[in-house]
Amino acid sequence: MNHPSKLKLTIVQKNKLKAFMRNTNNKKEYRRLLAILLKAEGRTFEDIANEHGVSSRSVQRWVTAYIQNGIDGVKMKKPGGSKSGITDEDKEIILSALFNDPHLFGYLRNTWSLRSLAKCLTNELDIPISFKHLQRITKDLGVRCKRPKLELLHGKDYEEGKELVENYKQIASALKKRES
Predict the structure, then answer these.
(1) What is the residue-wise DSSP string for 152-173?
(2) Fewer Cβ close by (within 10 Å): the C or N end of the chain?
């Protein structure tokens, strides 16, 4: 098993390995590719394993994966996990709600925060979603979420707008106190 037989690689294969090593940001992929190059130089599985702090069986698996599937065989696979319960139809609803005025849903805000949008989606639209999941989905959809700011509405009268903001601040603080 720990025989020092040499892995035969062409110059083109070695260059592809080295190019991939230069471009990868994943240290595990880099280590695997380096192990393959070292094996091609004639090093034993045991020597390579000791140098990288892994078992010789791991090095054997990496070399075998490379022989069978090329560079794709040693690439790191995306971690598994449960699939999202949010469908494409739900994503469209999320986007339309995000771009609609919160007043339509009975919120006393001019813009959405992700937390209030998650509450609205869960309670009003029957799409159970957490703040963090909503954050990931909006990022995947290319929507940049910024911290909301209170701004005056561009109405006819500046004083009227100022009064609306002041009233909002009083109502919002009263609502916050009631929630506690």
Answers:
(1) ----S-HHHHHHHHHHHHHHHH
(2) C
**CA dist list (Å): 131 to 84, 111, 113, 137, 158:** 14, 16, 10, 10, 35
Cα–Cα distance for residue pair 17/61, rounded to 1 Å: 17
- For the chain, what is the mean pLDDT? 81
Q: Residues 61-93: pLDDT tens digits?
A: 999 999 998 888 888 877 777 777 888 888 888
| Whole-number Cα distances in Å, 31 to 2, 16, 37, 56 | 19, 15, 10, 13
Instruction: Assess whether pLDDT exceeds 90 at residue 59.
Output: yes
Task: Please report the DSSP string for 34-71 in residue order.
Answer: HHHHHHHTT--HHHHHHHHTS-HHHHHHHHHHHHHHTH
**Cα torsion angle, 101, 105, 108, 109, sign:** negative
Among left, alpha and beta (phi > 0; psi -120 to 50; other), residue 127 is: beta
Distance in angstroms between the alpha carbons of the first and the last residue of the chain: 67
pTM: 0.47
Q: How far is CA 104 from CA 84, 98, 109, 140, 154, in A?
A: 27, 11, 10, 25, 19
